[in-house]
Amino acid sequence: MTKALVVGIGNPDRGDDGVGPLVARRLVGRAPRDVTIVERAGDVLTLIEDWNGYDIVMLIDAAAPDGRPGSTHRIDLLTTELPADISLSSTHSFGVGNAVSLARTLGLLPRSLVAYAIEGANFEPGADLSPNIAAAVEEVAARVIAELGAMNDRRSTEAAHA
Amino acid sequence: MANKTIRVDYIARVEGEGALDLHVRDGRVTSARLRIFEPPRLFEALLRGRGFAEAPDITARICGICPVAYQMSAVHAMENALGVKVTGQLRALRRLLYCGEWIESHALHIVMLHAPDFLGYPDAIQMAREHGDAVRRGLALKKAGNELLRLLGGREIHPVNVRVGGFYRTPSRQEFASLTEDLKRARDLAVETVRWVTEFPFPDFERDYEFVALRHPEEYPFNEGRIVSSRGLDIAADAYDTEFEERHVAHSTALQSVLKRRGSYLVGPMARYNLNFDRLPPHVQALAREVGLGQECRNPFRSIIVRAIEVFYACDEALRIINSYEAPEVSAVPMEPHACVGHACTEAPRGILYQCYRLDGDGSIMEARIVPPTSQNQLSIEEDLREMATRSLDLADEVLRDRCEQTIRNYDPCISCSCHFLKLTVHR
Known about the structure:
The structure holds 2 protein chains of 2 kinds. Chain A is an alpha/beta fold. Chain A has one domain: Rossmann fold. Chain A contains 4 helices and 5 strands. In chain A, strands 2-1-3-5-4 form a 5-stranded mixed β-sheet, with helices on one face. Chain B is an alpha+beta fold. Chain B has a single domain, classed as Cytochrome-c3 Hydrogenase, chain B. Chain B has 14 helices and 14 strands. In chain B, the strands form 5 sheets. In chain B, strands 1, 2, 3 and 14 form a 4-stranded mixed β-sheet that branches. In chain B, helix 3 runs antiparallel to helix 4. In chain B, about 55% of the residues are buried.
């Protein structure tokens, strides 16, 4: 059976960095019931262990601003190198890109690994979500639900033909 | 060749930002300085005027790798000030939380940060091509530690569930069910990790350190004990200032801590192990003997084996605590603030962490002092570097630079905590 995992990454106490967990919370009760939804505070290294055993993994994370705060990027991490200007970085120089490289080397990549990156504007401690980013939360949640739904439909069709 | 300089501008695979300058004149090392240039963090000033109950949440922000250590020293110092003793299952839960931090912090350092030095890889990602099993083990161990932090601390980084007097919420016995299986697996992985690191090539290097660690009448130390040393020091935490002092040095934004009458000293896994071998359970001692570690280790490069032994111990101790756990009736011991002073020292993964607070009548913090392990090890690191470089001057600069970085990483330095990584400059 195909198992899916959504990980909202970020620190809700650091302004727009909290957008990942906020999208994850928006998915609860709306995503297909067999999808696991977790929040992670930013220890990227443990993502590899988190997605162990899952076939489909979606990461939701804030990205450094590239001039268009609130704009969202869907990145297929299995086929695309993370663009340098969309750094889903963390402290201690070990970012999502490193985790993907390490997992690839270890043979621990899921069958599908997608990141939704939302460009942030303000990462100040204690700050609220910027208006543009707040507006992107529902948009990303809806896209993730649609993508998970489409995967479910495909699985049903495949099962019917099996 | 009269003068030579070797420089590492940013030392990789340590927490925080520092650099190393090595000066060599006429074939002699004239200075070895660990330059810490990360801006000061000013946490002690930030604590002034805040309520005593806020200290564990504020100090947890000092470090993303060892927040529990900051929380534990803070709560013990406050309880020492207010005359409260936390016992029974609440005390056991604190020890369990500390096990989680040791497991995740040590596993990260052993496998991801330090092992590449011994095996000749630039980083763990490159190392994973040839040593995939070892890296998978490290990740699984780290995850087991993180899960303990998540359950007891509320989240894996900067936990939010620790309070002066106990916890905000204590778990039920059932909540440990899934963790028990993970920890049993982690314990086996820790034994494999001990055997793996034992096979590394170790430079022949020993120095006559003064080891300083906590010592408890019965336990391998986490939260409690007297501060003891290999040269006869034996004091309670409230006498810390009579024996230790912090000094400003021009090349570091972190204070350097010394023993007043003797100078440098070493804290961390090697000190704990050497001063507390008899407090380890017989089967942990047996594993240490089996891999040739003995009761004492004076080679800082072999500290990676000690760290791995401590991971095994922490998994074992966590399972012991969980097996005998019964949910306590109250999640925290209540207390009334009054004007007072309190001190505490606990064993962070990198060594003893001292905190002292002076409180006003309403419980607000008048004065705070925090002495992290890396400040205490700074001088020892510099002395190791000078000695190592002196013995290795015939090496090519690049090889010497790598060896110096490895020497620093022996200490798993947390530079962000001490001020608080590395840039090496050798001036020949």
